[in-house]
Amino acid sequence: MTDVKISVATVALNAARDLPLTIESIAGQTYANVEYIVVDGCSSDDSVRILERYSDVIDKLVFVEDSGIYDAMHTAVANATGDYIIFINAGDRFYSEDILQNVVSRIVGSPDILYGNHIYKDGGLEYFKSSMDFRTIRERLLYGEIDSRWHDRIPGHQATFVKPSLFKSLDFDSTFDICADHDFLFRAYDAGAEMQYVDEIISFYMAGGFSSRNAAKLRREWALAYRRCSLVPGAVDSFIFNKERSPFPPYTAFSGYIVSGKHEWEGPLHEDDFIGFACWASVLEIISPSQLSTTGMQIKGRNLFPDQEICLIHDGVRIASVSVPVGEFDISLSFSRILPRGSHVILRS
Asked: Which end of the chain has the least Cβ crowding within 10 Å, N or C?
């Protein structure tokens, strides 16, 4: 499939020390149908001299002041004319001179995203990071079945080829300075993008970049990105913050959330799930998950009064009701009809 054109992009700022290794890696590829784009954020070091030295290798060179790495990557996408684009940024490099040829030869159909494995280099150590079927990655996040092994198998942008048209339709979320690439992959999958895993080591990803220097910010961004996509945001918090108290509320639009009726608790709660808030108003308004139809819900709490009933109302129609015992309770409710995504529900007691 030599007619498949690959755009390789490097975004850099004051990276004169790292640029030669990266550019040589790209220049040495055996696959011929390659476009090389460099976006430099108006560096003040020797980057310009280095880039001029490789002017015969670089097809498009853009100097622009940007607001961060993903803004620069957006500029690269806007200048790309290939069928796919991959970002090999300053310091990173392809694993072998044949890797683009190998990836192109294994394309099946016309997937929106191709992704493979990479090696993370930290000092003298190399860590092999093997990706896996993205459906599995997505489902494990959805149900909160995540750990370090799951996290390591999310492909990095140095091992991911994306159709520029998909980038242009979804774009990177400017909320993130570090992990917009992970957020993009989950949003692309949820939007129906066709993804193909290629079992090849695509690149070396070098430690010491912006994410390594901003570990606390990176953890917060991971949590925000992953919580958006999970029915169990608490599991994300437990993994990312190592069971520290999360800086985020215990719900998301994806998992459903409370609109009104939430009150701060004035005494201790025994269940970890209730730390920080309790709902003891007579009327509670909730929104069902924004990405999934809903057939029921689970309610945990403490009831102080006898002869109480919980009733759920949607569009003026009662869809479930149940008697509530005095004391601690954990009740599962099945709805009389399936709730559409993002439904507004009133819970009365």
From this structure: N
